[in-house]
Amino acid sequence: MNQLLCKDKSKLSHALLTCEQMAECDRMTVIAGISDISLMENAGHKVAQAIIERWAPCSVVVLCGPGNNGGDGFVIARVLADANWSVRVASLVSRDQLKGSAAHHSTLWKGVVEPLTPEALNGAELIVDAIFGAGLARPLQGASLETLLMAKSKCIPIVAVDVPSGLMGDTGVNVGAVAAELTVTCFRKKPGHLLQPGKSLCGELLVADIGTPISVLFGDITNKVTVNSFENHPDLWIDVFPLIEQEGNKYTRGHALVWGGWPTTGAARMSARAAARVGAGLTTVAVDVSQGEAALMVYATTLISIMVTPIAKLQDLDIMLTDKRITGLLIGPGAGVGEETRTQVLAMLKSGKPTVLDAGALSSFKKDPQMLFSAIDGVCVLTPHQGEFSRVFPNIDLSSDKLSRARNAAKISGAIVVLKGNDTVIAAPDGRTIINTNAPATLATAGTGDVLAGIILGLLTQGMEPFLATAAAVWLHSEAAANFGTGLLAEDLPDQLPAVLQQL
Fold it and tell me: Which tens digits make up the pLDDT trace of 190-234?
C-alpha cells in the first residue's frame, strides 16, 4: 500500500494529514502559484457558503484568533455581511497585532472589532469559532475558553473553522474544546477529526476545496509529505477485494480454520459463519474433545454448512495445520485464557499460515507478551479492545493518543493491530494506519468482536492483501451493523454481509 496509494487520486481523497503535513501542503500550494491571501479568501467563502446553506439569516458573532484561523474569520464575517446577515466580530488581539494574510483580510472588514470576551456573545444566535486551528499545542484558557463555555451554557450553535478551538488536530485530544454543530476544514481531514473525542466534538464535518492541487500529495511539486494515514473507505481496497471466479472451486476460495472454544461456543460459531459469509470456500471449526465430546455435539448440531473436526490432543492440531488447503486460522473467540490456549496459539503461528488472534488468545500472553511477539513470523492480525490491549502491550502509555498506541503496538509485535472502538484504528508494522468511521453505536454489544475476527479470517483465507483485508473487514462489519439498525445482536451480523457485499 505504500506505493499503491501514492498517485491514485481516488485513494488520496481519503488521505489524512497531520498539522505539519497540511502546513507543507499550503507551502507547496503557494509555490504552485496560489497566494496565502487567495487560500484564506477561498476558505472563508467556503465556510460562509456552508453556513448560508444550513441556517436562515440570523445574528452571527465571529470569534477571531491571532493566526490564519482569525484571518479566515474576517473573510467569513465579510461574506456573511455582504449577504445581508447581521454580523459582529470579536477578536482575541487588536487588528494591528495581526500579520500576513490575516492582517490583509482584517482591513477589508469595515465593521467594528470587539474584544473577545463572554460579553461579546450577547444577542448571538450563531457563533463562528475561528480562534485557533488544529495546531494548538496547549490547553485552551483565558478569554477563549470562557467565551466558548458561555456559548455552550447558552446552547448557541457553533460553526468551527478547521477544528473546534481546543481540539488537537493530530490526535483528537480535547484540551478545552466545546462541541461544534458544524466543522469546516480544508483540503483533507486530519486524524483528530476522526479519533474520539474529536470525532464527536466536530459535529457535521465538511471538507472544503480551496484550490490546493492534489499534486502536493504525490510529488509533482517538490514536497516532503508522505501520506501513511487514511480514512477507511472501499476506494482503498476494492481493487484487491477477492472476487468469485466462474472457474473456481471451494478450495480456490480458501479454507478457514476456527478454534472452537468450550464451554462458550457461540463466539467461535459466529466467527465461523462470518468467515463463510464473506467468501471462504470452506470453513472448519476444530473442537477440543480431550475432556469429552459434549462440545463436539454442540458444534455439530448447530452448524450446517460449517464443518466440525474433533481435536483430541495437540498433535492432532499440528497434523491438521500441515494441510496446505487450509489458508487462514483464527483462535480466541470463546477459547478461554490459559496455558492450553497459549500452546494452541503458538502451534498456529508456527504453521506460517495467516492467523487472527482475538480475545483469550491475546489475554493468554498477559504474563509474557514477548513470547507472543517472538512467535509472530508471518501474517498475523491482533484484534484487541482496550482492556486486552493493555494486557498485551503493558509498556505502551495508555494516555497517549489512539493512533500512536496502535502504531507502536504494530511495530512492537510485528502484527497488524486492530485497536477497536467507535474510532477503530488499523495499524501495520511499517507505520501505515487506517481509521474507521462508519461504525454505528449498535455495535457496542456482546459478540460483535467475534464476528469481526471471522470476517478478517474470511478475507485472509481468500488471499487478500493482509492490511487491506483487515481494513475491508472492519468497514464491512460496521456497514452490516448499520444496515441492520436498532435491536442488533452479534449473531445478526453474518447474515447482513451478503447485502453489503452486493452493494460493493
Answer: 999 999 999 999 999 999 999 999 888 876 555 567 899 999 999
DSSP three-state, residue 5: coil
Q: Which residues pair with 260 in a beta bridge?
A: 287
Rounded CA-CA distance 405/398 in Å is: 7
What is the 3-state secondary structure of 273-291? HHHHHCCCCEEEEEEECCC
CB-count exposure of residue 451 (10 Å: 0-12, 13-18, 19+): buried
Strand ranges for 243-361 from DSSP E: 255-260, 282-288, 307-311, 326-331, 355-357
Rounded to the nearest 5 percent, the helix, strand and coil shares of the chain are 45, 15, 40
What domains can you pick out in the chain, each with its CATH number?
35-210 (3.40.50.10260), 250-503 (3.40.1190.20)
- Of the candidates 68, 80, 70, which has an alpha carbon nearest to the alpha carbon of residue 35? 68
Contact 416, 426 (CB under 8 A): yes
Q: Are strands 425-427 and 433-435 parallel, antiparallel or unpaired?
A: antiparallel
User: 260-304 pLDDT, tens per residue?
Assistant: 988 999 999 999 999 999 999 999 999 999 878 899 999 999 999
Whether residue 409 contacts residue 389, with contact meaning beta carbons closer than 8 Å, is answered with yes
Helix ranges restricted to H, 61-131: 68-82, 100-108
Phi and psi at residue 160, to the nearest 5°: -100, 140
Percentage of the chain modeled with pLDDT above 90: 88
Q: How far is CA 393 from the centre of its chain?
A: 20
For residue 314, pLDDT beyond 70? yes
d(CA 183, CA 208): 10
Q: Which of 358, 269, 284 is nearest to 321 (CA)?
A: 284
What span, in angstroms and rounded, lies between the C-alpha atoms of 222 and 497?
44
CA distance 49 to 71: 16
At 3, the pLDDT band (50, 70, 90 cuts) reads very low
Q: Are 187 and 212 in contact (CB under 8 A)?
A: yes
| φ and ψ at residue 283, rounded to 5 degrees | -135, 130
Reported as half-sphere exposure (CB side, CA atoms, 13 A), residue 146 has a value of 9
- Which three three-digit cell numbers place residue 360? 483469550
Is pTM beyond 0.90? Reply is yes
Q: Provide the 8-state DSSP code for 200.
A: H
Coil, helix or strand at residue 364: coil
Q: Please give the Cα distance from 353 to 461 (Å, whole number).
A: 9
